[in-house]
Amino acid sequence: MNKSITVTIWMFVFLLLPFTSIAETTEERSASVLSSVRESTEETAEVSARRWGLTVNEWQRYEEIMKGEGRYNWKDKDPIMVLGLYAETDAERERYAERLAVQEHALVDRLTKLNFAYLRAFQRLYGDEPLLDLDKFYAFYNMTPPSRNDQIKPGLGSTLGDRFVLFISPDCNGCDASYLNLRRVQEFGTALDIYFVGASDQDIMDWAKTMDIDPDLVKSRSVTLNDDTGMYARYNRPPLPAAFYYSKSTESVHPVNLDTGAVQ
């Protein structure tokens, strides 16, 4: 073979080798990246599933649902509720419903404990200072406050900052009905402060669960659950249950008929 041809062939092979090596390296790197992404996705799914107490398969089903109509209808719902909504069997639906019940029970428990701690802290730091200074509120919005000579009359509505005050105890007759009656007449902007006489924190939590009090009511302070630390004595210790209506505009207190919820 001609020597120059031989040299040319070897030079061609020599030049081709780096490109072959680069191509192989690129393929290996691509495969490695894809493998890492796949492993990372699997790890993310496993971590997310573990956070909600689900299997990886359940989490992947949740993700598939949220890629479809769930993206528009259920984006603010947690995975357990979404999976319950799309359960394929009664047994599966019951299982997710039970998980939701446990979850909500724990939420109410945490909210109630936080509410107790908050009320104690507020009382310790600020005493009887109102949560909302209505004079500043009216001034900020350039509103005319109602006349302090106006008296509350049943059926005429309430003013922002007014409050029902209900005194009950864990074992009093008619306390549950009294709460329900006041809730029926409670208007927007009016709070319902419940004071438990002779009750422990656990008694109060048990009562709240029995009455199925919405955690959002406690969170928004539309309903407050309080361990009585002297408020009952300030109202002259009436027979339980007892309720009063405090008018912010007139700074006056009125008895409440517990059968009708009417302010007297």
Tell me what you see in this structure:
There is one protein chain. It is built from 10 helices and 5 strands; from the N terminus they run ααααααβαβααβαββ. The model is unreliable at 6-26, 29-38 and 147-158 (pLDDT under 50). The termini are far apart. The protein has 2 domains: 3-85; 135-255, Glutaredoxin. Helices cover 55% and strands 10% of the residues.
Q: Care to give the gist of this entry?
A:
With 264 residues, the chain is α/β, with parallel strands linked by helices. The protein has helices at residues 3-51, 56-67, 70-73, 79-85, 90-126, 134-140, 175-185, 201-210, 215-219, 231-234, and strands at residues 163-168, 191-196, 223-227, 242-247, 252-255. A hairpin with a 4-residue loop joins strand 4 and strand 5 (252-255).
Write the layout of secondary structure elements.
Elements: H1 3-51, H2 56-67, H3 70-73, H4 79-85, H5 90-126, H6 134-140, E1 163-168, H7 175-185, E2 191-196, H8 201-210, H9 215-219, E3 223-227, H10 231-234, E4 242-247, E5 252-255
Parallel strand pairs: 1-2, 2-3
Antiparallel strand pairs: 1-4, 4-5
Helix pairs in contact: 1-2, 4-5
| CATH fold-level topology of the largest domain | Glutaredoxin
CATH class membership of the largest domain:
Alpha Beta
Shape: elongated
Tell me about the largest β-sheet.
Answer: 5 strands, mixed
Find the count of extended strands (DSSP E, 2+ residues): 5
- Beta-strand content: 5-15%
Radius of gyration: 33 Å
This entry's quaternary arrangement is single chain
Q: For the record, give the distance between the C-alpha atoms at the N and C termini, rounded to a whole number.
A: 122 Å
| Widest sheet, order of strands | 3-2-1-4-5
Give the uncertain stretches in residue-range form.
Answer: 6-26, 29-38, 147-158
Put simply, the count of helices is: 10
CATH-defined superfamily of the largest domain:
Glutaredoxin
